[in-house]
Amino acid sequence: MALGLVSIRRASSSAKGYNGGQIGGNDVDKADQIQWRLLNRRAFIRQGTLFLAGSTLGGSCGIAPAEGPEKPKVRIGLVTDLHYADKPPAGPRYYRETPAKLAEAAKRFEEQKVDLVVELGDMIDSADFLHVEKGYLRRIVKDFAAIPGKHYYVLGNHCVSALTKPEFLEIVGQKASFYSFDVKGYHFVVLDACFRSDGKPYGRGNFDWTDSNISAAEVEWLSADLKQTAHKTVVFVHQRLDVEPPLGVKNAPEVRKVLEASGKVLAVLQGHEHQGGYQEIGGVRYCTLKAMIEGSGPENNAYAIMDILPADSIRIRGFRKQKSYDPL
Questions:
Q1: Sheet holding 302-308, edge to edge
Q2: Residue 222 sits in a domain of what CATH number?
């Protein structure tokens, strides 16, 4: 069987922000299951390049709604809660299946010619030792970084179970844990909600995951960043800004006030709550994507493509378990 090649492109170095921790369904048919087993065995890295075994992902691999007649101004691949780890399953989490699930998403993103790919947090699961957790991260980052387009990482609580924020950022090749960047006339903001109530950054397991906050310095930075941009904006964050703790950010009302006051935020894309969700608050749409990690086999994969369309409307095309929103 021929191997398809996906070329590497690194994330833009022009993003601005602060460094981490400082201020900063349908049943699958037999053919599909065979294809999944091949992907699981034969998605691998060679000299920094992701190779995908098998033919183009077709009808049995999760058909998404039609694109529609409008050509997107920006196209974004989205994944969240990969929780990769080289360890046995625990409950509904099948850690070793993440590379194959990501390979399917990577093939889809390549075919759809996304402009950028965003990982919305919890890229890895926890390990008992620091060197093991670093190994998990290096392994899955190779796969993610091989997807065509620019790459952006959102910090999740599981990303710093053993690591510190600077260690995570060094491995993924990103300078900041919260930052902003522009693509094709749109502004994008990545937030870091991995701070304790006392303002200290998560790291080395020094936190309770229900104590999620956006630091005062980051809120101040966010307000200034939104004031300086002339563009419509999309925000990415791991923990939810539209619900109360334990799954929501403790100072979410304060953050939402900043987003609403700007009059520029089109949507907030989130992870953390594995079942996903959606609601609108104060004119801002909050879309929580389903976790990639939950469940075994291709039918339990979850990922999405977000299109920003003319007139600043947004379309989310979900694949596998991920719901579609057209329009968002």
A1: 150-153, 116-119, 74-79, 302-308, 314-320
A2: 3.60.21.10
